[in-house]
């Protein structure tokens, strides 16, 4: 049994000891929910205003590592359907979800659908777990992996197939703008990228002050696009946690650690975490765009006076095992790949 949280949390009146975080990890300080996270209007990314929108996006990545996008072209109906499908998925009977269950400890980045509870990834000890279940699988361009996706709810493959195609399109728009903002050739990010769906389900929690949906971390992939409707996401800005106010029909976009490497240190990857609440479960649909091979500072960004800050590494072979091995809290996963000045 994988011990999925969503199978038993509704029956709990108290946070079990397994999910009570050590004192220093608990989210006890008050956190302000802000609406200052930049909002980028992708509808303006095509016309005369493009250069200004690209600048806005780069500034957002530099200052916050996060922004929200509107007018992204993903139909509202599809966003609603995808959210419904995932909520239904997480409320399926335990036996159904068990088909995909994996121990967090055996968690590797293979394609086939898998589920796990909480995450030991960013943690010192298996004894303390986060307040979330995750469903994760690849979403390959050729669509061949779709037969490994969940087949319940019955419209899962159809809805999520369409959704992941749309999100791939959006990710290309964003990465095209990142390439332009960094002064790289337009197709810089077009090759060698993988896509994963990583969907978090954070049940309502009897005592949110004792636990976290997921602890502070930086994402290991290039960019993440999150669909959310319930508050819970917080980001670390100037050493202070701030809450991201959900915006209807918008997506949250953030940069992961490889973007810092490719931009040779120009673009931050910002730590974030998720808090729980007593009344609402929260489902967040993550589209993770991942490098497939080599990650290194873009050649166009290094030269005399601009030495590379990072070594070249293979994302799947060199980086991911280190990232998953933990002890790699926040930006530490990049440490072994840094070149000392
Ligand atoms: C993640 C993550 C944020 C959220 O899955 O890496 O940070 O809002 N999720 O659920
Ligand atoms: Ni994350």
Separation, N- and C-terminal Cα atoms: 49 Å
CATH superfamily: B-lactam Antibiotic, Isopenicillin N Synthase, Chain
Q: What hetero molecules are in the model?
A: N-oxalylglycine, nickel (II) ion
In one word, what is the shape?
globular
**For this structure, what is the CATH class?**
Mainly Beta
Stated plainly, the CATH topology is called Jelly Rolls
- CATH architecture call: Sandwich
Radius of gyration: 19 Å
What is the β-strand count?
15
Strand content: 15-25%
What does this protein structure show overall?
With 341 residues, the protein is an alpha+beta fold. The protein has a single domain (28-337), classed as Sandwich (Jelly Rolls), CATH 2.60.120. The chain has 7 helices and 15 strands. Strand 2, helix 2 and strand 3 (66-70) form a beta-alpha-beta unit. The structure holds N-oxalylglycine and nickel (II) ion. Residues 198, 200, 214, 219, 226, 228, 233, 272, 274, 284, 286 line the site of N-oxalylglycine.
Write out key terms for the chains shown.
341 residues; alpha+beta; Jelly Rolls; eight-stranded mixed sheet; five-stranded mixed sheet; 24% helix; globular; binds N-oxalylglycine; binds nickel (II) ion; Dioxygenase
